[in-house]
Design a protein that fits this description.
69% helix; mainly alpha; 486 residues
Length: 486
Amino acid sequence: MTFNTFGFLGFFLIVMLVYYVLPGKLRPCLAALASLAFYALYDVKLTLFLVIYILYVYFAARIFEKRNSKIVFACLVILALAPLLVFKYLNFSLHIMDSVLGRLISSFGPHSVSLVAPLGISYFTFKSVGYLVDVYKKDTPAERNLPVLAAFVSFFPEMLAGPIDRSNNLLCQLKDKGEKKFSDLQAGMLLLFYGYFEKMCVADRLKAIVDGVYDNINDYSGAVVMVAIAAYSLEIYLDFAGCTHMALGVGKSLGFDLPVNFRQPYLQTSVAAFWRNWHISLMDWLKDYIYIPLGGSRKGTVRKYVNALTVFAVSGLWHGAGLNYILWGILNGLLQIGGNILNPFKDKFYALLKIGKESEGLKWFKRLGTFILMSCTWVFFRAPSTSYALSIFKRAAMKPEINRLFDGTLYTLGLSQKSFNMMLLFLLFVLLFDYACVKGSKPLETILKSHFLFKCFVFILLAAIVVVFGIYGTAFDANSFIYIQY
């Protein structure tokens, strides 16, 4: 059951109505029960595993209060990570061992194991490990209220695709017994429907193009392959950002402020800035619990770059157990390091040409360059293997045939001409929306502060667009969220 289904809307409506009428002290119990019910509706067989994991995190944190030793801490954190390592990386490890050792291990057990990873395992594992580290460091007291901790670990808006919450945010809010505000409900519903628009009206249309080209690259010219490469960059952004806006909207409707996960990443002017504004909750987690403990930038330039590469390699592994994911992470780390090294030279170059560093023209040039670089790295993320990714680049470079962009070929990639043009119109709207945010405007807040009738008009218009061009539009698939698999 995903956000963009009528089943979820019915579930959410019931939870919201009960949540608002319950006394404050009972709300954490409802949040925990609703989260477990949501999980059971998605995969009832793995709900028991989630319950056991919650109990483990609860008692592990309590143990830290009594035995705050490094050995105990290391053992308990490793055990907290163990399910993630087994479900996501066991087969990958077996494959690597099989490739390296070959026949030497052929007689020592299976080459692969059939495992189905629990929904959201990466998100609730990182959330729980962060909580345990905070308790060990005494930044957060061990939570004694089991329903509160259960709701924190399994909070249903964050189970599909994050964000990865922290103990100093959601855990504190779950214990807040204050009255819920109608303004939160309005803001939440607006976020929810804007997320629907991003995902269902734009990302799903882009998906039709990307899937058609990526699955049959030899049938298309290099120029069309380049379009698909760019389209995937936009698809993964709008798919993930749309899902995040839905999560934030559901949380806000219940009175919770979940962490912002995106701040217009494709309108940033460098790879480093891109990563400060993409999947913010993951990058902050990696910075606080890996980069800084490794020494951060405190131990010299070389160590700083090694630490950065380590973080991006871990980010790649977090996304998937495959060499293409690791390469994707390392490439992004190298691009960020390269940007840092080249910054002084770029400043001198701009000064030589008398180009103002804050000029809008230069910013758009940098944005375009950042988009191109990121689009190239996403090829390794989307392709099923590294070799297939390289074949995509080869196809794009060897047979451009630019005329294919203007002879109607683009209208044969899974979208009709009308649907393709509608997608471009929606993309333009998203670009203008994001650009307004970059320039300091807050479009959603402006709508919420407007006259009641105008707010009603916006809600009705958004709902109509989602229904007409999303649910009943091209390529609708309720289970096609990209980041559910991570």
